[in-house]
Fold this sequence. Notes:
The chain is 39% helix and 27% strand. It is α+β, with helices and mostly antiparallel strands. It is rod-shaped.
Amino acid sequence: MKKKAFTIMEALASILIFGFFMSIVSRIQVTSLLRYSKWRQEIERIFLIEKAAIKSYLNPSKDEEHEIVKKYEVPDLEVRTGIKRISGKSSLKKWDKNIKISETVGKWGDLKELKNLSLFTLVFLVEEDDK
């Protein structure tokens, strides 16, 4: 009586097919993890830029020439915050003494792909009266 069993060629073929599908699944997982890591860094950069914008809004500088530059290494990011004058063409020009524009710019990336995010906020400056 002859026993039914798989031949060596059938076993090798099934192992080959299984390995092929596992390599596809592992590539999809690695790509997904790399994309997640990149998105997480993007979100962290945006958070740091927003944090600098809020800090500039809560503690505005009266000096329009003063620009604050902060560099981060992890994640690679440069944040510039400064106060800008209102343009002469703007309808807000009559409130130029009390309202300023806070500009926060974040830059990151390499020579191949440079990204930039700009946030603008109107800042109301309260004049302190001498009593």
